[in-house]
Model the fold of this input.
Amino acid sequence: MKKDSTRLVITFVMLIFLLVISLSTSILYTVNNYLESKRSNVPVFVFFKDNVSKEQALLYANSLKTHPGVKSVKFIDKSQALLDILSKLNLPQQQFSENPLPYSLEIFLKPQFAAEPSNINSIEKTFKSNSLIDEVRIPKGLFANISQTTLTFKEFSYVLIGVFILLEIIILALLLKITYEHKRDSYDKLKLLGIKRVKIFLMFLKHIFLSWFFASLLAVILGSIIMFLYINYINLVPVYQNDILISFGASGGLYIVFSFIILMVLSLFVFFIEDEKI
Amino acid sequence: MIEFVDVSKFYKDRCVFKDINFYVKEGQLVQVSGGFACGKTTLLKLICRLEKPTSGDVKIFGEPLNRIKYSRLMHLRRHMGVVFDDFGLIENLSVKAYLYLVTKLLKRKQYLEEAIDFFSLQNLLDTKIFNLSLSEKYRLALARILALRTPLVLLDEPFSYYKNKQELINMLKTLNENYKMTIIFTSYAPIESIDHLDIFNSCNVGEQ
Done:
């Protein structure tokens, strides 16, 4: 009598896919966060007119903090700016009798806001339309480059995860078909006793459900071990440790639920394609 | 209980039966005997509708099977105990697991112990079915029938698998008399003490 190893194979395949998809999602999510943070680290400089007083400049800086696209605003005092320049150029402070620099602001935009080129143009117009502002310097090319990279990376992430899921669906469908073929003889014998197809389907589903259950359980255990080892012994990017942990856990949980749905739908599909009314 | 009305069965051009008519009453013990490939198994398959007749009508419990709905057929099959050459057993289960599964699915667990005792399967309960001998498998198949208390029993060539012929005849008679089961079985050689159903040679009637 040949031993039925299809359940073991289904469990193993599901486990591999659960781990691979969760790990990939975690890595992709973290890299995406890194790119997003790059975008919010690009400063926008706003220079006030020479006749603008410090109070006026500070008032305007405070008003910008409530802008939906602004993450943070740093006020740069003109005397401090001059000191910085002089120290960088190694020049004596007494060289200037009058400070030629204006007050300025260093503004960091929210990543999602900065992702849209029209938002960049719109905030530039907002700055320029103000009578206190003399000049606005926005590195539009850099923003566009980061946006393009992020977009391409996101598309790549979706395609990669999509390919994994598609592969999982195809392999599971084939394995379910093989499982049914293996069980067909037993099911046909039960039909001869008058056992309803619904009951036979439930038996088939129970058989498959156990594979999902064990695969999920093993994925949780192995995933926890992998994360423990990573955090304690590897930890390549400590800054993103929480991102990696949270995204791995969340995507793992999501894929466990998702794989359950896939398995149930595929089981139903395979059963009604393969099962015959004898 | 079983009625054949002008039933013919052909496999392409080969005639198995032609216009046969018979009626088996409730509580009868009937044998269908005949030589190799004369259609004995086909007859049983027509009764449980594993095959359809080429023409004519087969009625079971008064219901014609020709246009029966699948759900209704399943209902009728719950009243039939059928044993063909593979015994209808699930080989990778143990005797106990198999009997438990079948009686649980059909919600007839109350007769399980009695069936195990009747066919002396106590010592085999934990044995995997694929490890049983042919006669043990046959006893298990009969135990299933007794546990399910099916009023109609169809057995295909039981003497090919059960070595002690007289013991099997006695078992069948007990099932028939004590449990009021209608039994139809096929055999190569006829048995004197049991009613005989003669349906063969029907293909040659018109030619003669």
Notes: Residues 56 and 132 of chain A are 8 Å apart (CA to CA). DSSP finds eight helices and four strands in chain A. The mean pLDDT of chain A is 90.
